[in-house]
## 1
Amino acid sequence: MSPVLFVNGLFLLCWIINYSEAIKPEIHAFHFGRMLKSGQRVSVMCAVTVGQPPFTFTWFKDGTVVSESETVTIRNIDEFNSNLAIIKLGPEHNGNYTCRVTNNGGSSEQSDVLSMMVVFPDPTWR
Ligand SMILES: *[C@@H]1O[C@H](CO)[C@@H](O)[C@H](O)[C@H]1NC(C)=O
């Protein structure tokens, strides 16, 4: 084998070893905001910043998979972004929401608590 071929082969081998190991996803933190009022629209994005597709997105509310309804929708915008929207916010939507993203390298999660504002604040509330 010629030295050139050998070196090229070595480079190829290193490249394969480096890139065959999938990097697990990293997710941009999302926030619901603080002054949330009854009846308003709320939308957050679960955006992958690091890692290779394909990804599987799963949204949880207090540890349970979010099921879509008349007031809650989940849209996978593209292979890196998933959107959770609440069309008409009500007290039943309060909770701890988590987005889990999984690929061949593993999975990551980001969470934020949705806490709707009380219209006539009770000083003893919270
Ligand atoms: C929300 O849920 C996540 C995932 O279960 C957990 O790690 C986090 O501590 C929770 N946050 C709050 C404020 O309860």
## 2
Amino acid sequence: MANLADRIASFFSGNDSNTDEGLRDLFISELKSVYYAEKRAVDALGDQAEASTTNEVRSAFLAHQEQSRIQVERLEEIFRIIGIKIDTHLSDGIDGLIGDAKRVISETESGSLTRDAGLIIAAQKIEHYEIAAYGSLLTLARTLDFSQSAELIEKTLEEEKEEDHKLTILAQSFVNKRSKEEEEKHPGSHHASRPVPHSSDSDITLGGPLGV
Ligand SMILES: [Fe+2]
């Protein structure tokens, strides 16, 4: 009997006909759940834009909403390419993250910068979910030699990564703005003198979009 390493290698190289069937089912199941997530994200981005305080945050959400509509169409194209009916799988993961974003809106004051900070954090959590989902889908598509689908998924994955980066930059400029306002209100206070993270320092491994 093949050892574990050989079995894993054959699984991921797609050389095992039994696993090939299983991987195709897994691909379809993941496709349906990312389709569900993307459609929910389109609606959620509209709510987040409406609730946001600053024009910068609002336009970032609206621009990504437009991009997400195109991503939904790309997923529909993949359903057509592999010849299955367009369908969704419910996903508790995205439902939970969108629920968190809604809670930010209900728990923060309308017109406050705190609300925008909370919305950026919630949006970036959704982005990370999508990056994980598209990344896995891409690996499956490549393993199964679904090259046309892989190309479409890769395009979306790159867009999601860029969006994640944009949110990080937005969060940093937001922290700068907040610091400046605090400095004006309370000159010399320790809040204002707190160092603002540099863009190259900010990474998901360093604690999140606000880099703190
Ligand atoms: Fe998306």
